[in-house]
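Amino acid chain
________________
===
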Amino acid sequence: MLNIQLKRKSKGDIIFEVFLTIFMILFVIVTLYPILNTLAISFNDGIDAVRGGVYLWPRMFTLKNYETVLSNANLKQAAFISVSRTVIGTVTHVFLTAMLAYILSRKEFVFKKQLSFIYVLTMYVSGGMIPGYILIKKLGLLNNFLVYIVPGLVSAFNMIVIRTYINGLPDSLVESAKIDGAGEFRIFMQIILPLCKPVLATVALFVAVGQWNSWFDAMLYCSASPKLTTLQYELMKLLSSTTMQGGGTGTIEMLKNGGGMVTPASIRAAITIVTALPIVCLYPFLQKYFVSGLTIGGVKE
C-alpha cells in the first residue's frame, strides 16, 4: 500500500516534501535555540558563563541563579498579586468585551456605528501618560488593586475581533431564541458565548500574557504599596540592581548566602525562565483555540 502511494507521487512532489521537511526542521531549531540557550545559562555557574561557550547544556550545573531570584522576601506576595490580576483581569476583560461586541454586532442597535467609531478612535488617539495618571488618581485607584483591573476592562481591538466572529454566526440562532422567548442576556450567555470559545480563548491568551508580563503599571501606580507589588516588578528591580552592581558588563557578584557566584547575564536568564514558565505551561491547553481563533475572517462563505 505504501509503495502504491509513493508511486503516485511525482518527483517534484517528493522534492518539495523533502525541502519542506528540512526547512521546518531548521525553523524549529532556530526557534528553540534561544530558549534552550537561556535555560542552559540559567542553570550554569555565573563565572563559567562569562567565558562563553554555553549553548544547549550547562557546563557547570548550579541552582545559585534561581536561589538568588527566589530569595526575594516579597516574591510570594508578588506572585500572588500577579496570579490574581491575571485571572481576574482576564475573566472580566473577556466577559465585558464579549458583551460589548455582542451589543455592537446587533443590526437593530441604533447607535452601533457611532459607538464603534468612538471605540476605534481610542486605538489611534490617547491622552498620554500624565492625563492617564491624573485620571487614575482622581478615581482613587492609586495604591489600589483595582488599578490592575479597571483600566483594562474593555479593549477596542479585542472587541472588533470578537464582533467579527459573532457576525459570522447565523442570525437564525438568535432569531429562533427570541421566538422561544429568550432575552438578550440569556441569548448572550447560553448561545453566543459557547459558540465563541475559539475567539474568546485567543483573546484570553493575549490578555493573560499582557497581565502577567505587566510591571510598568505597578511601578507607576502602586510603588508606594509593597503589598501590591507584582512578580514582574520585583524581578525587574532585582535585574536592575544586579546590572547596576555589575556595571552591565558581566562583572561577578558574590552571593550573600554562600560562596556561589552570579552575574547579570545568569540572573537575566533565570528571570526570563521564571517569568515565561507559567505561560509556556498554559499555552498547550489553549493551542487548539488559539490556532482556530487566528483564522477568523480567513474564509468567507
In short: The chain has two domains: 2-72+247-294, 75-221. The first strand starts at residue 253 and ends at 254. Residues 247-259, 297-301 have pLDDT under 50 and may be disordered.
